[in-house]
Amino acid sequence: MYIVIAIVAFAILIFLHELGHFAAAKAAGIRVNEFAIGMGPKIISRTRGETVYSLRAFPIGGFCAMEGEDGDSPHPDAFTEKSVWRRLIVLLAGSFMNFLAGFLVAVILFSGSGYFSEPVLSGFMDGFPAEGENGLMVGDRILTIDGQRVGIITEVSMYLMRSDGTPDLVIRRDGEKIRLNDFPLRLREYETENGVQTKYGLYFNTVKADFFETLKQAWYNSAYFVKLVRIGLTDLFTGGAGVKDLSGPVGVVAMINQVGSESGSFQNGLRNVAYMCAFIAVNLAVMNLLPIPALDGGRIFLMLVTLVIEKVFRRKVNPKIEGYVHAAGYVLLLGLMAFVMLNDIIKLI
Length: 349
Prior knowledge:
Elements: H1 2-27, E1 32-48, E2 51-66, H2 84-110, E3 115-124, E4 141-145, E5 148-149, H3 153-162, E6 169-173, E7 176-180, E8 188-192, E9 195-199, E10 202-208, H4 211-238, H5 249-261, H6 266-287, H7 296-313, H8 319-348
Antiparallel strand pairs: 1-2, 3-10, 4-5, 4-6, 6-7, 8-9
Helix pairs in contact: 1-2, 1-5, 1-6, 2-4, 2-6, 2-7, 4-6, 5-6, 5-8
């Protein structure tokens, strides 16, 4: 059941992404030759006006094929014939739709909450060693940990776990910002109602979950998803993680199935799977904006570079060059996808 839900969720996210491009292109007066969900051979296709709408065999992607998108075209409604700001909006629209989907899912999930925790200290466990005017006090709001801005409680745990036990903190106390460098804050054993547990020794304040607080928490949570993607990419380039740690659709579907199956009940499973889908939606939004050829971010980057070259040297850049760059990037991207899929299958086996 959860595998089916995951596949449907992927299809919906792809549809929303391409729908964003499609709607923006139509609004900008750009001719759309085909709007497709899935890849591979066509299963169903219908032509309405100038556009072919198709459903393809493999639910692993989709596309919105615009006239002149990958090369020069004499058509007056070609992508390259429109102004830079119109093209920019069209390219951003797909990621915007994915981010919006993740945000709305978070709003729906959080709307049933009675209260939210916030990064404001409400107390300390017995034996906490760093309480006081020169340390932490009740009412302190944690603003940053090691330079990373904190919006939700989950970020506090994540940044503390990634620190060396002496993080640099910035807190707000009585309206004043206070910096605590190399602050001793590490996991220790504390006596709790449930016995001895390993904790950081902090208790946090809670606020009532009204409409505006729900929107704020959903926004902070979506921003947290963006930070997770950034941290993952940073670890990948700094050696903290390897290419083998990447997961594609196969690995993500398997993970969603595992999370759902281990949730205790079908209702909890749906909530946990929906939360993961919200993260995946924001993940897709961010990844598509990376300056990699064949991705939306790569198209935006090359479009801006082309604009600068044309302004400086006052000569038009051949659109075919950009088409070749994206074609090469697409081939490399397919190779990476194949490697990641094979790696996911090996992990499952």
